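FORM 7B - TANDEM STRUCTURE REPORT

SECTION 1: FIRST PROTEIN
SEQUENCE AND TOKENS:
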Amino acid sequence: MCWISWGKLTKSKAKGGLGFRDLQSFNDALLAKDRGKIQNLLPEYEKEILEIRVSKLGASDSYAWLPSKTGVYSAKSGYYESIKEEPEPSQQQPIQEDFNWSADIWKLKTSLKTKYFLWKTMRGALPVGENLRTRQINTEAKCPFCGAEETTHHLFLTCTFATEVWDAAPVKTLFNRTRISSFRELIEKAKLLQSLPPCGIGDGPIHPWIIWSIWLSRNKKIFNDRIISPRETITQAVSLAREWLNAQLSAPPAPIQIGPPLVIADPSTISCHTDAAWSEELKAAGYGWIFSNRRDGLHRAGTDRSSHIRSPLLAEAIAVHHALINASDLGFSNLSIASDSKQLIEAINSETPTKELHGILHDILKISTTFRKISFHFTPRENNRVADSLAKNSLKSFVPDPV
């Protein structure tokens, strides 16, 4: 048990303390003293040096793998790092870098099969006549519907068969086909189509299903010698779209997990809510925490602020650290900490190593062992408004270091 707070021990002997150095204040003083040396010798690293948050309780130095959040190397992170700088091999159909793969394909409200089909087509990997001939596969490369050269642009837009399919599409206003010169432009224009209400597919996109159904009709013509009319093709597209959307509506929604509720069973347990407010421009943070106890209605609060804070996650961790020190100084033995940073709470509870929180996380866990009972919980932001207000007010009073 700590009988005298660390804050009192760091006071000079003349003021009733023992003259112990407060490591953070001492570190700041040394940095201020040596700032001129840093600017002269390592000016390009001044910002990084000032943002170093060393452990106050002896966390060992260690190497960190920067591409990984945890700082620990994994084959997966190594693989993605190795391919990051590799130039993409040339494509048969060049794809401009500004194409929005996420919005125009992967986030479409359609089946994974059709998303993959669109992606494959965009990448020039669909086995149409032109692509087969490019790969030196013996084929006439002719469209099965009209006999013209089969390209993706022709098959899905300019062929008379495709033209009749699009003309029959149940949409409010169809795009101008004469102004579309590539499959990419078709994707970008077709996503703006609005289906008519009788379709029964709501705001779901119709164009992926139309393109997919044209492909199905093409394959049936080639491999089964079956002729599917444009009207049957568009009917199939609407039917497939409706069937898939109805299946999504009937699926039970996945439960939303926001973490265990903050339940204080022991009346003697002190509840502590913490929060941090971080300024990216100033690289500074304000911290706020409030203690409460339902048994005797205890309410105490604390605030602090500091500079050279590199991220909001680090700021949240420092807020918890300050609250723990304050709780120890006040003599609390049973404590329940709540923070609205889910990432921080998960790191504390799992004791997961992380390069960003290496020193501060070690100190939080070390201080936690001095309490008889302690727990850490995630709380939604709306339940953390008092601590949030304290942190923001503390940040407002921050005065930047003179340069």
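SECTION 2: SECOND PROTEIN
SEQUENCE AND TOKENS:
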Amino acid sequence: MFDNINDNVESRLNELEHLLFNSSIKDQTVLGVEALLDAFIVLYDECCNST
């Protein structure tokens, strides 16, 4: 059961990395991995702390 989920997560991560790292360097709208992780952490904290 979890193997399928892990494969799905890995494929999504690979797609995200492909989009981030293969984009044009001149494109200033592309977020870095660190910025995306920060955004996910903030979203997670907000969801966990909401009552």
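SECTION 3: OBSERVATIONS ON SECOND PROTEIN
The longest helix spans residues 2-21.
The mean pLDDT is 76.

SECTION 4: SIGNATURE
Preparer initials: ____
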